[in-house]
Specification:
two-stranded antiparallel ribbon, 28% strand
Length: 116
Amino acid sequence: MSRTPSKTVPAIVLGFWLRKVIKLVFMKLRNHPLMSNAKGRIWPPIWKEKYGETTLTGEIGALTHVAADPRWRHHFYLYITHENLPFIGRLNFDNSRFCYRVSIFLKSISGEQLKK
């Protein structure tokens, strides 16, 4: 009986690779390196009251709507409700592909608290 070389990946290499994948999968959006533009970090956005003068910052309120238009390649608008008042925020990206992916992700969690 001839012995063929094993084609299994050594456990050390597999463990290292799995740790890298797990870190990527569970990265919080706010910490992603592309959540920035030439001016700096873009999360959390500045929230402006829709029908008033109030301006807030932070991960506040519940996401109610994401307004993204294909013509807007580098930004989209977020609509939230905080203390029963509507607010609007805008995210400006340098990377248009990442902008699109973030808008799709945020649309999928519409209705949830932003703090999550």
